[in-house]
Amino acid sequence: MLRRARRTLADVATSAKKLELRIGELERQADNAADHDQARRADEGQAAGNVAATLAELRRDYAEVTAREERVKAASRRLAAEIDAFRLAKNAAEAAHTAAEEAAQSVWAEITVPSLDQQAEPHD
User: What is the C-alpha separation between 101 and 99, in angstroms, rounded?
Assistant: First the structure.
């Protein structure tokens, strides 16, 4: 389960990085278009508007993906903490079980094995 959460986190982070790169690419294209002469900008006015709309959409998508990434990170951390708590409880239970077994063996040994005093007494 933790492996799946980590995989989901990696997928979301990859999506965010792809969007970030795409936004950077479009921003560079928009900057390059702004550097061209006035006549060319008039012809490309429609294209610049499309780039601006695409950038706005990508920025919204990026914000959504980063918010999802934070939610998945938090869920992954909670899951990891729950797994750690379970492991600690399991280890404590195993230690208690082992201690109880050893105590039972010790008591059994005291009951079944005669003491040295009893062995030393002569039988008449």
Answer: 5
Q: In whole angstroms, how far apart are CA 46 and each of 40, 42, 51, 52?
A: 11, 8, 9, 10
Tell me which amino acid residue 49 is.
G
CB 5 within 8 A of CB 75: yes
Predicted TM-score of the model (pTM): 0.61
CA angle, 2 then 90 then 82, to 5°: 35
Q: Give per-residue pLDDT as tens, 2-60.
A: 788 889 989 999 999 999 999 998 888 877 776 664 456 555 556 667 888 888 999 99
* Domain range annotation of the chain: 2-81
Which residue shows structure tokens 């869920």?
75
* Joined tokens for residue 92: 């404590």
